[in-house]
Amino acid sequence: MGIFKHLLLVSSLVPLVLSYPYFPPTCYSKVLSMAREVELWAADLKLGYETGYCMAHMPDLYLDIHNSCVMYKMRTYISLLDGLRQRRCAYTSEVRKLSNTLRQIFIFMSEKCHGELVFTVHDCAALER
To answer: What is the pLDDT of residues 50-100, one digit of tens each?
Structure first.
C-alpha cells in the first residue's frame, strides 16, 4: 500500500513540474497582452498589401489600459473599422478579426475585469501618438 501512495504522489506531481513556467493569466495580464498584440496587428494591417489601401487613413492604434480614455478610443476605432464596410474593406478576414478582437478586449475590460483594472491616468491626448 505504501508503494501505491508514493506512485500516486509522484504521478500527481509530474504534471505540476512539467507545467512549472505556466501561470494562469489574470484578467489584467490577459488584457495587457491582447492590447499589445492588437497594436502590432493594426500596424501590420496598415502596411499590408491587401488591406493597406483600406487602412491607410486609419489612425494609429495605441492602447494604454491604464488610461481611462482607452475605452472611448476602442469604441471609436471599432466604429471606424465598421465604417470600412462601406468601402468593402471590412470584408477581409484580417480586418474582421481585428474588429472582433478589439470587441473582446472591450468586453473583458468593461465586464469581466471590472474590479481588477485600475485607471491611473486620464490623458486622452496620450493615446493619440
So the answer is: 555 677 778 888 888 888 888 888 899 888 888 776 666 656 788 888 889
> Which residue in 113, 87, 82 sits closest to 100, CA to CA?
82
Q: What is the DSSP string of 52-117?
A: HHHHTTSPPP---TTBTTHHHHHHHHHHHHHHGGGGT-TTSHHHHHHHHHHHHHHHIIIIITTTT-
Please state the domain count of the chain.
Answer: 1
Could you give the CA distance from residue 82 to residue 65 in angstroms, rounded to a whole number? 22
Asked whether residue 10 is assigned to any structural domain, the reply reads no
Q: Is residue 118 part of a domain?
A: yes
Q: Rounded to whole angstroms, how far apart are CA atoms 60 and 57? A: 9
Domain residues for the domain of 91 are 25-127
Check: CB of residue 84 under 8 Å from CB of residue 54.
Answer: yes
